[in-house]
From TrEMBL:
Name by which UniProt lists this protein: Glutamine-dependent NAD(+) synthetase
Database matches in NCBIfam families: nadE
Keywords in alphabetical order: ATP-binding, Ligase, NAD, Nucleotide-binding
Molecular function GO terms recorded: NAD+ synthase activity
Active site: E44 (proton acceptor), K113 (for glutaminase activity), C161 (nucleophile)
Gene: nadE
Gene3D superfamilies: Carbon-nitrogen hydrolase, HUPs
Positions annotated to bind ATP: A354, L355, S356, G357, G358, R359, D360, S361, T479
Domain CN hydrolase, chain residue ranges per copy: 4-259
UniProt: deamido-NAD(+) binding residues: N455, E484, K605
Sites where the protein binds L-glutamine: Y119, S188
Matches recorded under SUPFAM superfamilies: Adenine nucleotide alpha hydrolases-like (SSF52402), Carbon-nitrogen hydrolase (SSF56317)
Length: 639
């Protein structure tokens, strides 16, 4: 047996906080060394924070990362654990996103990332140079390039995030060159379904390359990106470790590297591919490192988890359904996004929102409350709920169209959460603003339209929230959802306003499903009180969002088919027939055309909306996943 203990760390790094980030790494490094970890893997760009974007063009920012890495090396010199951690390194005219190898107080090597993503939320090729096979550079006395490393426990390879997502990444040639352990340093943002995808992809790579993969992921939120952390160790396709997500810390497991060697000898296809590699390509050079690593004499052979065996998994069925797991992930991601935005900016003293008694603002309040709990990690129980509630102010601002049902629902949930609740009517201001609008239109001018009257109410509320926020130093949360944002069912200067948008990338049907899930989890009466009301903005008499737009399930299907699948309106109409076979095809076609028209006409609103939390592959955020021109014509859509 050749036992090795591998640790994967999730670190909540803040962009630019190089000293604080390294302090966090040192604390975890010390803890892992005390736990007899042989090899400790930290996330991508953990020193400088991710995604730093154009900030890496400041030379001082890049140099500060090198200095802090040197400090990490000095302060961990007494530890025998081998460390791998991510940062930006400049070499002449290149900037590389690298994994740094540190051991015994020395920076031993930098290995650059080769696959630079420039899609969805990623822009790395804009600022970074790619590593290439055979790269051999000098980064001020430290090797920078393509290399594998031999320690007394085995052969180690390093790669960064996207490198593992391609089957043709550097892992293949490094494993054919002898690497037994591949350390993947990642800053992989949360998005719907990503956990299962990561798990399957890592298992596939480990099996295809007959190696042990140690995958460490960043945790925490920067801007609208939420990193869910966690990590994996997978040996030759066999899962050995899956770390807890949405939490800073580390997890470790023991693997027997002799098993990897045996698996390679048994896998005839792998050996055939290895022969072809030797004939056609140059092996990756190996650097032998002779300094003694952590004592492995106390490590024990990895036994199956309790309740399982070498031949059978656990008999316990999953407690949650996949739907419940995803909804809980959304809740955790949204709360972490708000909490870190509040904490890392450092400019806010409390949190506030306009609470309408409707579904969107209710979910935003529930997320804000959970975020406030995350900001009090040392409390629990009733004390935690009270502390979180005391950070939040909710304002119900009724006009003549507001109902008793929504007011009672808003008051109920604030009582459930111990949140400050204030009723501030806008009726008088509504009348004054309509009179001012008539004055602007001039004598004999037109009467303000019904749409204008609705927007006036929303803008009064938005202005009041900004005025309160400016004075109280509060983080003003915008409460609109993705479906209504997509169709412009929102008011510029009104309910589109806020300093941070919480659910702007969450479709309306998911908002409702998440509220139902949270009601099941927490039992707050205020959730049911809101769900029992009619979904609408209450800016006109008897207003219903579905009546004015279309049924929410149809709207969200159009959003997916048009925005994510990129179907033309006529194709959306055809697809809707399959999704909703019991609905009138003519009506479905009208809804598809209406969606496409309003979607295109509303892009000018998106670019004025606040930064939003990233939750999936489709974001209505022009700087993130879906980048569309504001000015465009729709002749291409055809009939």
């Amino acid at each position: 047996m050749r036992l090795v203990k591998i640790g994967v760390a999730s670190v909540n790094a803040t962009i630019g906080a190089v000293r604080s980030n390294v302090d966090r790494c040192i604390r975890l490094a010390t803890a892992m060394a005390e736990d007899d970890v042989t090899l400790a893997v930290f996330p991508e760009q953990v020193v400088g924070g991710y995604a730093a974007e154009d900030l890496v063009q400041w030379q001082a920012f890049v140099e500060s990362q090198r200095r802090e890495l040197e400090r990490f090396a000095v302060e961990t010199a007494r530890l025998r654990t081998v460390f791998v951690l991510g940062l930006t390194v400049g070499v002449d005219g290149d900037l590389f996103n690298v994994g740094a190898l540190v051991h015994g107080g020395k920076i031993l090597a930098f290995v650059p990332k080769e696959k630079l993503p420039t899609y969805n939320v990623f822009y790395e090729a804009r600022v970074f140079s790619r590593g290439v096979p055979g790269l051999n550079l000098d980064a001020r006395g430290v090797f920078c390039g393509d290399r594998i490393f031999q320690f007394d426990f085995g052969l180690l390879a390093i790669e960064v995030c996207e490198d593992i997502w391609s089957p043709d990444g550097p892992m293949r040639r490094r494993c054919y060159s002898g690497a037994e352990i591949v350390c993947n340093l990642s800053a992989s943002p949360f998005r719907a379904g990503v956990v299962g995808t990561r798990r399957e992809m890592i298992a596939t790579r480990a099996a295809d390359n007959q190696c042990t993969i140690a995958y460490a992921n960043l945790v925490g939120a920067n801007d609208g990106l939420v990193f869910d952390g966690g990590g994996f160790v997978n040996q030759n396709g066999r899962p050995m470790l899956e770390a807890t997500r949405f939490r800073e810390g580390y997890a470790a497991t023991v693997v027997d590297l002799d098993r990897t060697i045996r698996s390679r000898r048994e896998a005839s296809t792998w050996r055939s591919d290895l022969e072809a590699f030797r004939r056609e390509q140059t092996p990756v050079p190996v650097t032998a490192l002779h300094e003694k690593t952590a004592d492995r004499s106390k490590l024990r052979y990895p036994a199956p988890p309790p309740g399982t065996s070498f031949f059978l998994p656990s008999a316990n069925l999953p407690v949650k359904t996949p739907r419940e797991e995803l909804l809980d992930d959304f809740y955790d991601a949204l709360a972490l996004g708000v909490a870190d935005y509040y904490r890392k900016i450092g400019a806010f003293r409390r949190i506030g929102l306009a609470l309408s008694g409707g579904r969107d603002s209710l979910l935003t309040l529930l997320v804000a409350h959970r975020a406030a709990e995350l900001l009090h990690p040392d409390l629990e129980g009733a004390a935690l709920r009270e502390a979180a509630g005391s950070m939040i102010s909710a304002f119900y601002m009724p006009s003549r169209y507001s109902s008793d049902a929504t007011q009672n629902a808003a008051a109920r949930i604030c009582a459930d959460l111990s949140v400050s609740f204030m009723i501030v009517p806008i009726e008088d201001a509504f009348v004054r603003e309509l009179d001012a609008t008539r004055t602007l239109l001039g004598p004999g001018g037109p009467e303000p339209t019904e749409l204008t009257k609705q927007n006036v109410q929303a803008r009064i509320r938005g202005q009041r929230m900004w005025n309160w926020s400016n004075t109280s130093g509060a983080l003003f949360l915008q409460t609109g959802n993705m479906s209504e944002k997509a169709l412009g069912y929102t008011t510029v200067g009104g309910d589109l306003e806020g300093a941070f948008s919480v659910i702007a990338n969450l479709p309306k049907t998911v908002v409702i499903a998440l509220l139902e899930r949270l009601e099941k989890r927490f039992g707050y009466p205020g959730i049911r009180a809101t769900l029992d009301t009619t979904a609408g903005p209450e800016l006109a008499a008897n207003q219903s969002g579905e009546a004015e737009l279309m049924p929410f399930e149809v709207l969200d299907a159009c959003l997916y088919l048009y925005g994510a699948e990129k179907l033309a309106p006529n194709e959306v109409a055809l697809a809707l027939r399959s999704v909703f076979p019991d609905r009138d095809p003519v009506q479905l076609a009208l809804w598809a055309e209406k969606f496409a028209r309003l979607f295109t006409q509303s892009i000018f609103k998106w670019v004025q909306s606040p930064l939003a939390i990233h939750l999936g592959s489709l974001d209505l955020d022009r700087e993130r996943a879906l980048q569309l021109p504001v000015v465009q014509r729709t002749e291409w859509k055809g009939g």
